[in-house]
Design brief:
Layout (H helix, E strand, L loop, with lengths): L2 H7 L40 H14 L3 E5 L2 H9 L7 E5 L4 H10 L6 E5 L4 H7 L4 E7 L11 H10 L3 E5 L4 H4 L9 E5 L13 E5 L2 H14 L5 H11 L2 H20 L4 E5 L9 H7 L7 E5 L2 H11 L4 E2 L9 E4 L10 H7 L5 E5 L5 H18 L1
Parallel strand pairs: 2-3, 2-4, 4-5, 5-6, 10-11
Antiparallel strand pairs: 1-7, 6-7, 8-9, 9-12, 11-12
Helix pairs in contact: 1-2, 2-9, 5-6, 10-14, 12-14
Bound molecules: ligand LCS.
């Protein structure tokens, strides 16, 4: 089946009793045993639930994985995977990475004896150079948040595999509709389903998808032990949202491309970050490993923080808010919002400046979004 069909049909567990066409919500915490060791495949909702299993089957199919787990947030998914590591282990991660992932790796994991090296992952050689004898995980985020930098997935997974190091890819930005890292050699994919997979800005959720059964066993142990599962209600909403993922991604991409082209020629804009632009240095890599360029555009306004502030105050169709991937357009100031957990030095190393704005166009008409940014940039120019 093709992605559009899988997204609608996979994991839609119709009930046998009334033949409902969509998945029922099973809000039960527990399931009856008819004898010792005898139940209908479910025992306790922290470990498994029929509604959640429907979503997990859907996401596993979209990502070409063998198993998936739906979690209470993207960070719950990330924590579950990372806590399969032990004290003394080392992670290699990109320095341009979601601020929450940075917070976990830089501020929490060292207390557990797990160190992370943050590197520029645009060059695969930097991964080879950063590997140590105790490196157990290479973390990939491509395209990255917020600068849309790309990691060469095949090159990096080859380097890691040769040293027996596990690879994990955060596929939140591209989604399985545009990129399937498991098919390119990655061992585990994680998502913030809060974003495109649910797509309606009304659920905080996450997902983990594993390629093989050995890793799946470790993750399953952690998932049950930590209790990072999402509720049946949230799973039901995400299963409803994911059905339109392909159509929404096409609309997000159309809008992102139109906005990137508009911003590129604008005199009030210093720099535009979008892998679909002909001027993007990694466009060829994007074309090789993705089937689309995604829906996020970041740009630097001329005039730094004050110009950024003026622009954000003036937007009318875009809403100033963190998060991304919903049907409505959002815009945010990365340095003080999504990436405030980074130290100023870490932001400077990553290239996140005070004038950087990140746009997540929704599925609106592109002209309305462009007109909005145009008038916002005009007021930024007047005030600086
Ligand atoms: N991975 C990526 C790439 C993300 O962008 C986020 C959240 C997460 C993981 C964590 O997911 P959550 O726990 O929030 O479901 N990104 C956000 C952002 O850029 N602004 O607000 C949240």
């Amino acid at each position: 089946m093709r992605p559009e069909t899988k997204a609608v049909h996979t994991g839609v567990r119709k009930d046998d009793q009334y033949n409902s066409v969509i998945t029922p919500i099973y809000p039960t915490t527990t399931f009856e045993y008819t004898d010792i060791g005898k139940n209908k495949g479910f025992d306790y909702t922290r470990c498994a639930n029929p509604t959640r299993q429907g979503l997990e089957e859907n996401i596993a199919a979209l990502e070409s994985g063998t198993a998936a787990w739906a979690t209470a947030s993207g960070m719950a998914a990330i924590s579950t995977v990372i806590l399969t590591l032990r004290s003394g282990d080392h992670i290699v991660a990109p320095r341009d990475i979601y601020g929450g992932s940075f917070r976990l790796m830089a501020k929490v994991l060292p207390g557990l004896g797990i160190q992370t090296s943050f590197i520029d992952m645009r060059e695969p050689e930097n991964v080879s150079a950063a590997l140590r004898s105790n490196t157990k995980m290479v973390w990939i985020e491509t395209p990255s948040n917020p600068l849309l930098y790309l990691t060469d997935v095949e090159a990096v997974t080859k380097i890691a595999r040769e040293k027996g190091v596990m690879t994990v890819a955060d596929n939140t930005f591209a989604t399985p509709y545009f990129q399937r890292p498991l098919e390119q050699g990655v061992d585990v994919v994680v998502h913030s389903t809060t974003k495109y997979i649910n797509g309606h800005s009304d659920v905080i959720g996450g997902a983990i998808i594993a390629k093989d059964e050995t890793i799946a066993r470790h993750i399953n142990l952690m998932y049950r032990a930590l209790g990072t599962a999402c509720s049946p209600f949230d799973a039901w909403l995400v299963l409803r949202g994911v059905k339109t993922l392909p159509q929404r991604m096409e609309a997000h991409q159309r809008n992102a491309m139109a906005i990137a082209r508009f911003l590129q020629g604008h005199p009030g804009v210093e720099k535009v970050f979008y892998p679909g632009l002909e001027s993007h240095p990694q466009r060829e890599l994007a074309k090789r490993q993705m089937s689309g360029f995604g829906g996020i555009v970041s740009f630097e306004v001329k005039g730094g923080l004050e110009a950024a502030r003026a622009c954000l105050k003036a937007v009318k169709v875009f809403t100033l808010a963190v998060s991304l991937g919903g049907v409505e357009a959002l815009i945010e100031h990365a340095a003080t919002m999504s990436h405030d957990a980074m130290t100023p030095e870490a932001r400077a190393r990553a290239g996140i400046t005070d004038g950087l704005l990140r746009c997540s166009p929704g599925i609106e008409h592109p002209d309305d979004l462009i007109e909005d940014l145009s008038q916002a940039l005009e007021s930024a120019k007047v005030r600086t």
